[in-house]
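Example record for the data management plan.
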Amino acid sequence: MSTQFGAKLTACFALASFFSVLSAAQQTTPSSSPDPSTQAQPQSPTKDQTAPPPTPSDKDKNKKGTDPNGQGKVVGTSNDRLFYTLPNFLSIENTAQLPPLTAKQKFAVVARGTFDPVQFPWWAFLSAISQAEDSEPGYGQGWEGYGKRFGTAAADGIIENFMTAAVLPSLLHQDPRFFQSSKGGFLRRSEYAVSRIFVTRTDSGGTQFNYSEIVGSALSASISTYSYHPKSTYISTPTNPHKFVGSDRTLVNAADVWGSQIAYDTITIVVKEFWPDIHRKLAKKHKIEPAVAAP
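Corresponding structural encoding:
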């Protein structure tokens, strides 16, 4: 599992770099600017025209739990994406005063991020690395082995996301959102971000040990290790048609998975703390000046 953790981090940084370059290229593409002389003037609705429908009130949004104008965004969360791609819907910037999420909203926002279309190529990429390293050799090779690794990567991600950000936060009344600090220097903000792995907000606005992250990741590691990871088996290799492969369902392996998840979540939350700054710098660097109208 240690090799899988290293592969996961390598894949994360590789994809982050790729999408940053891709996004920068897209942002530098100039767009046509309207001629000031032909800009439409505001008009009042005539007798035959229909006025636009009123914007839903905050009360109506909270009733449904989602923002009708936010493409499924749960009220009190964000539409942000790390490196413009990876879902980051539970990170909130400069919004300390927010109502708590209901249990339904916690499950909704986790489901939205977990089953986001970008997750499927992400799991496929991790599975390809796992296959190349022949991690968990009990799965074998070929398309059958790759399919098992893909299912494992998907299941691991789904179970951990729901356990740490929906199931336990709902039962323990803890807030799964990450409230960015944006105060102080690099070290102070890094310390704050790392501390959020162990300390979290409660739904009532207090602070509490982050049982959702620590216990939730332990439970998800145990569920995945002892349910669908390979048992001891015999596999056929070019040099040994009856090679014995030991079981991955061990306490040591479960502890390794747990530690890897905590380490990966710690690195991710530090990236989330500084992502708004990176985003603003990229946007400023690649900002396109408005076109100057010809005389």
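Summary line stored alongside the record: The chain has one domain: 2-10+66-279.
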